[in-house]
Amino acid sequence: MKEPLLPALKMTLLTLVLFSGVYTLAVWGIAQLAPNGGMGETITHNGKTYYANVGQSFTEDRYFWSRPSAVDYNAAGSGGSNKAASNPDYVATVQERIDTFLAHNPGIAKAEIPVGIVTASGSGLDPHISPKAAQLQLQRIARVRNLLPEKVEVLVAQHTEKPLLGLFGPERVHVLKLNIALDNLK
Question: Which residues form the domain of 169?
Answer without folding.
Answer: 40-183
